[in-house]
C-alpha cells in the first residue's frame, strides 16, 4: 500500500506521461459537486464512444496536488491535452457544449480507415 503522497505523485506522473503521448480529456471533478455528478455518466459514455482518446477523471479532493498543478478553481473543469499541451479548456457541465467539443477533438484524432 502506498502513502497518499506517493499515490498523488504516481497519478500525476501517469497523467503527465499519457498527456505527452496521446490526446487526453481530463475531467476535474469533486464527489460533493452537483455538476460533477451530473456530467459523470456522460463522460463515461464519451470514453466508450471515442476509445482512441484517453479520458481521465481526477477527483480534486483526493488529488489536491494535481488540481493545483492544473490550477483548478471550479467544477466541472475539462482540459483537452494534445502532445502535452493544453489546447482547450471548458469550465461547465453543459452536456451539449462538452459533447460538441469532445466530438470535434475526437474527430481530429480518429484512426484512419487505412490503419
TrEMBL record:
Keyword entries, A-Z: Disulfide bond
Gene3D superfamilies, A to Z: Glutaredoxin
CDD domains, A to Z: TRX_family (cd02947)
Domain Thioredoxin: 18-102
UniProt superkingdom: Eukaryota
Family matches, as PANTHER family: THIOREDOXIN-LIKE PROTEIN 1
Protein known as: Thioredoxin domain-containing protein
